[in-house]
Amino acid sequence: MADVRLAGIGMTSARTRDRLVQRLREQGISNPAVLERIRNVPRHIFVDEALGSRAYEDTALPIGFGQTISQPYIVARMTEALLEGGEVNNVLEVGTGCGYQTAVLAPLVAHVNTIERIEPLYARARQRLKELGIRNVRFRHGDGALGWKAHAPFDGILVAAAPLTVPETLLKQLKVGGRLLVPIGPEGKQELVRFTRRDQRIERESLGPVAFVPLLGGTA
């Protein structure tokens, strides 16, 4: 039964996933490894059963606690943008949420360090990734805005919630050549930005408008 659940039937079947991948290609996602992860990760196990039939729509869905599972296009876009520009081994993810972004990213890099501030989501994400056999992820229940200094510096940092301005703490935990992907701005006026650390400067590149929940401090 577990294999059937992961494989999906009906609106969560392989054919439905293929249609999603085709839509992402049409929207400009070109990295074949990223597209393959979107096809293979069973997004339906990361949402409530009642929403399972909508799991492969290209839309964000609620996961409780005022949080959402990100739109597949955004997950693919952020993953692709993180991987562009050089080897990525050690990654920090701020905002584990349900664990879907983690599951897409983890097999494409050596190590993922992921932080979630809401304890029930943290526990649920750990269980889902264990179920999928993903072993290269280190989990933490904590305040992601502070980063994870013990495992810095990072080749990549991916932030799945929107601060009003770029968190300097996270920039300081990037390696030279490392990339920070973060949505910045107030609700309704957010843009996805890629920061790249160089020897003496930080490069900033806008990747377009997005909509994320706000980045909050502390734990819950």
In percent, how helical is the residue content? Answer: 25-40%
CATH hierarchy class name: Alpha Beta
CATH architecture: 3-Layer(aba) Sandwich
- What is the general shape? globular
Radius of gyration: 16 Å
CATH topology: Rossmann fold
CATH superfamily: Vaccinia Virus protein VP39
Name the structural class: alpha/beta
Mean pLDDT: 93
Largest sheet: 7 strands, mixed
What would you say this structure looks like, in words?
This protein has 220 residues and is of the alpha/beta class. It has a single domain, classed as Rossmann fold (3-Layer(aba) Sandwich). The chain is built from 7 helices and 9 strands, in the order H-H-H-E-E-H-E-H-E-H-E-E-H-E-E-E. A 7-stranded mixed beta sheet has the order 5-4-3-6-7-8-9. Strands 1-2 form a two-stranded antiparallel sheet. Helix 2 runs antiparallel to helix 3. The radius of gyration is 16 Å and the shape is globular. It starts with a helix and ends in a 10-residue tail after the last strand. The mean pLDDT is 93.
Compile the SSE list and pairings:
Blueprint: H1 2-7, H2 14-26, H3 32-40, E1 61-64, E2 67-69, H4 72-83, E3 90-94, H5 100-105, E4 111-116, H6 119-131, E5 137-141, E6 154-159, H7 168-172, E7 174-184, E8 190-197, E9 202-210
Parallel strand pairs: 3-4, 3-6, 4-5, 6-7
Antiparallel strand pairs: 1-2, 7-8, 8-9
Helix pairs in contact: 2-3
Outline:
The protein is α/β, with parallel strands linked by helices and 220 residues long. The chain has helices at residues 2-7, 14-26, 32-40, 72-83, 100-105, 119-131, 168-172, and strands at 61-64, 67-69, 90-94, 111-116, 137-141, 154-159, 174-184, 190-197, 202-210.
